[in-house]
Automatic annotation (TrEMBL):
Residues 21-205 form the T-box domain. One of its GO terms (molecular function) is RNA polymerase II cis-regulatory region sequence-specific DNA binding. Residues 236-254 have a biased composition (Low complexity). It comes from Caenorhabditis briggsae. Residues 206-225, 236-259 are annotated as: Disordered. The keyword Transcription regulation applies. This is T-box domain-containing protein. One of its GO terms (cellular component) is nucleus. Pfam families: T-box. The keyword Ligase does not apply. Keywords: DNA-binding, Nucleus, Transcription, Transcription regulation.
Amino acid sequence: MSSSINYFVHPTTSMPIQVSLRNLPVFESFYPSLLEQVTGSGRFFCPHHTFSFSGMEESSKYQLSFRFDRMSDNKFQFKSNGEWEVDETKRQSKSEKEDPIFLHPDITSGSELMSRETEFIVPITHRPEVKNTKHLTSKAVALETCVKYQPVLIVAKIPENGQMGIISQEFKFDCLAFMAVCRYRNSRVSAIKSELNGYAKSADKRRISRMNNKDKQRTPASDGRICEPCSSAIHSLPRSTVSSSSSRTPISKPTHSKFPRTLSIPIKRKLLSSSLS
């Protein structure tokens, strides 16, 4: 898939940056199920993506971004066996060739990025009128439902001292692949997200309490449903951009890890002709 930013290769420049996904055990907990993400407006991607960096130039400035690559030209459908399969009868209705990009709101020095963990809090939407642009610092990323995406982390070094472009390096973590959905289809994914999201659990308790009070006045014709399936895992979270490693609660690593704890895959080493600053 092509990116919404034009690249050309710089033959003499390299960026030996290493990236670690700090909350890898959280994403591993969904395996073997495919991660799903509800795209309703006002939502944020959950779990958040938390990274640590090494190998950066301390005095240089870096722009971080996420590109969401479509993994198929066709849409997917959820089968009764609990698996997502390509729907050969339905193709994506995207009007543009570009994959959506989210820019991290901060341009940060290498020394600061290497001193603490950096968290991506990505607003998302399903609204087609929200146009995907090259600079999504404040707008939500528009995702199409029943489409499988692969997030790609882009680390771009901001030019200085007369340099002509932005040098970038890309990293892909297979465990971050997900299906965009209007509601969660896999009950296991929904249950894990509900456990991860304390806000949703508290909201559920308040919602159930209110509904129990209304049950006393409910007519016999009522179906008794409290909410739509998986609503407890549909949530909005407070925005914050950087989280210190000393303040985070450790998460136990599963016994059998399907993904390496540190995965650094420089896909391309490129020079950007478009400025992200």
